[in-house]
Amino acid sequence: MDDRRFLSRLVLSALAAAVVGIAWQAGPSIIESMLTPPPQPRQVDPRPDLPSDERSVIETFQAARESVVFITTSSRVIDPWSRRSTEVPRGTGSGFVWDAQGHVITNNHVIAGADGALVQLADGETYQARLVGTDPAHDLAVLRIEGGDAPPLLLGRSADIQVGQKVLAIGNPFGLDWTLTTGVVSALDREFPGEGRRTLRGLIQTDAAINPGNSGGPLLDSAGRLIGVNTAIFSPSGGSAGIGFAVPVDVVNRVVPQLIEHGRYTPPALGIDYDQRINELARRQGLAGVVVLGVVPGSGAERAGLEPARFTADGRLVPGDIVVGVGGSPVVTSEDLLVALDTHEPGDQVEIELLRNGRQHSVTVALEGPA
């Protein structure tokens, strides 16, 4: 063989070996790229129709979203040098549109102590809110905005809801606006400590995630109707632990009209005067119930013939009637009396159980409304 031809073949063989060696050391990807076409995006598998329960949740959220609002509160701070006041952010919460007049419902604790509030609608528009009324006993408040065309939420009932029903909560947890969470009604008629020494009673318990910022937002049933106002959580960590509480809508529907008309809520009255300290003293003497100290002239209690206590010349209290039951609910303390009355409407004819001279009897009393 010719020496030059042999030398050329030797050089080509060496080059080929070098190329293969480099490719092998660089990894199989280079070899694969030399032998296969470049990778392409995978083909997307067509999705079947959403299940009916998912479609229902989506439709319910979309219908209710426009009625939920984002509330930002502020406080007025006065500069000690210039004496000028400045509005500074205070907190955030949730709420919802109540009627076509621009009334917005939220929790009392969302706006308590604030000097101003802004209400942002789902369309992004923001309005200055005016405080209309508050009810700390039920942790409810009413604001009003001028403008906007957000629709009111559909109104449901809480008296007939059942444990196990599906529920949806919409709000602004940690400032994350218009967040949806879902769950079920976990329990009914729960109690939870409110602000001060008040106890919130008759609450709906749910496992739908409720976090700081959800307060004042709506709890909806699967038909998108309002059944409660999210108000509190039980959580060692401060975040959602799956135990949230809502004020029932039947309470909201009873309280809000008074807040709009009077700025405050007054539960139906029996037409009697009483004193918690006297009740405590009577209880130490073995007399449980609310001691009637006075009867309001012209009231249902007077018409029903309730007898007030009297004092003897030496200052001793001689009990007349002691209220021990209202509408079938036992009454031991003055708080029991208020809670029992709060389940009724002004004008209702309610059976009152009384203890007089050691004997129990009952009368029917027409409850009074706010003055």
UniProtKB/TrEMBL annotation:
<dbReference type="GO" id="GO:0004252">
    <property type="term" value="F:serine-type endopeptidase activity"/>
</dbReference>
<dbReference type="Pfam" id="PF13180">
    <property type="entry name" value="PDZ_2"/>
</dbReference>
<dbReference type="Pfam" id="PF13365">
    <property type="entry name" value="Trypsin_2"/>
</dbReference>
<protein>
    <submittedName>
        <fullName>Putative periplasmic serine endoprotease DegP-like</fullName>
        <ecNumber>3.4.21.107</ecNumber>
    </submittedName>
</protein>
<dbReference type="InterPro" id="IPR036034">
    <property type="entry name" value="PDZ_sf"/>
</dbReference>
<keyword id="KW-0645">Protease</keyword>
<comment type="similarity">
    <text>Belongs to the peptidase S1C family.</text>
</comment>
<dbReference type="InterPro" id="IPR043504">
    <property type="entry name" value="Peptidase_S1_PA_chymotrypsin"/>
</dbReference>
<dbReference type="InterPro" id="IPR051201">
    <property type="entry name" value="Chloro_Bact_Ser_Proteases"/>
</dbReference>
<dbReference type="InterPro" id="IPR001478">
    <property type="entry name" value="PDZ"/>
</dbReference>
<feature type="compositionally biased region" description="Basic and acidic residues">
    <location>
        <begin position="44"/>
        <end position="53"/>
    </location>
</feature>
<feature type="region of interest" description="Disordered">
    <location>
        <begin position="34"/>
        <end position="53"/>
    </location>
</feature>
<keyword id="KW-0378">Hydrolase</keyword>
<keyword id="KW-0720">Serine protease</keyword>
<dbReference type="InterPro" id="IPR009003">
    <property type="entry name" value="Peptidase_S1_PA"/>
</dbReference>
<feature type="domain" description="PDZ">
    <location>
        <begin position="259"/>
        <end position="358"/>
    </location>
</feature>
<dbReference type="GO" id="GO:0006508">
    <property type="term" value="P:proteolysis"/>
</dbReference>
<dbReference type="InterPro" id="IPR001940">
    <property type="entry name" value="Peptidase_S1C"/>
</dbReference>
